[in-house]
Amino acid sequence: MKYIVILGDGMADKNIPELGNKTILDVAKKPHIDGLKGVLGMARTVPNELKPGSDVANLAVMGYDPLKCYTGRSPLEAVSIGINMKETDVAIRCNLVTLLDEEDPKKRTMLDYSAGEISTEEARELIEAVERELGDDEFKFYPGISYRHCLIWDNGKTGLDLTPPHDISDRVIGEYLPKNDKILSLMERSYSILKDHPVNLKRKSEGKNPANSIWLWGEGTKPNVENFEKKNGLKGAVISAVDLIKGIGISAGMESIDVEGATGTVDTNYEGKLAAAKKTLLEDGNDFLYIHLEGPDECGHHGYTEGKILAVERIDERVVGPLCEALREANEDFAMLIMPDHPTPIETKTHSSDPVPFKIYRSNNEADVAITYTEKNAKESGIFIEEGYTLLEKFINNKL
Length: 400
Ligand SMILES: O=C(O)[C@@H](CO)OP(=O)(O)O
Hints:
This is Cofactor-independent phosphoglycerate mutase. The protein has 15 helices and 13 strands. By secondary structure, the chain is of the alpha/beta class. The radius of gyration is 21 Å and the shape is globular. 2-phosphoglyceric acid binds next to helix 12.
């Protein structure tokens, strides 16, 4: 038996006026997901005590109680980047962002939390420049993927109340700037290093958003995630473009499979992810796979309705459909859990803590009818998992 989680990051949404008050899941054409004869339900993946980050929500979907094991987002990403954190280190997410030029730093606006989804190669040059100027015995910058990087603070502080930049798109940053002087100073000094860097001058000349500042958030200490195989008795793997999911997987002792051309956008390498999924399940002996697709979330943050619909449709057509077909052809019994981690509504361009819809399909125990996978149908099922981290155990142990 193979167990697969298809995680469409942020794909749940609210009713959208321009879609005739329907949601993305209502209008996206997803015949493969909808055609699966399975069970629908709702799950609360973000406990009331925590903020609706992908860190908290994905830990919960992977079966970990975030209230017990969550130590911050960046430390999980640091694991994927290959940073060996000391107990006294604090990891902080370092975005490359685009701020609107203003003399007074407080008056700048957060134009793009992703600096035009800058390429990893360009970003590496910029982070290396930042490290040369701002790195010292206390602070060290490590390049990651695209706009997502990491700062390690020796003997650093946590509880800094830093703001994720994707929560303040198009807003003046003044009131969201860090209260901690050291962190604030790093951010402000990065602007003068990056503003006229050749990489950015070239980007501007090509009409792209320059990565003219760093933005620090998501701090935390070394993570402590229970081994997945020990906990669930299944050897598992994760496939994702982003360091957060890779880092959770690696921290849990799972294999993290790198796929060339996996970008975390709607234009990711779906075929590459599919091929890796088939190989890991059918050839490499893994029984559990967490395949994460970031496209719907990115489109949600950018308020890009058509892109978000397309992202869901591509997951359906290029991952769910062919993966089910390959498992059937191989005569492999499988169970599939399809869900987002959290909603990323187009209207607010950021995450919400609302419960999310899920669908569970079992090839050896099909339901009588195939119910369309939408928020409304999932709510009407009457199945509600209040402690979302318990869903995975129910999925694996055939309790739903
Ligand atoms: O990685 C990030 O910076 C954010 C925004 O894309 O991701 P998520 O929305 O999944 O938390």
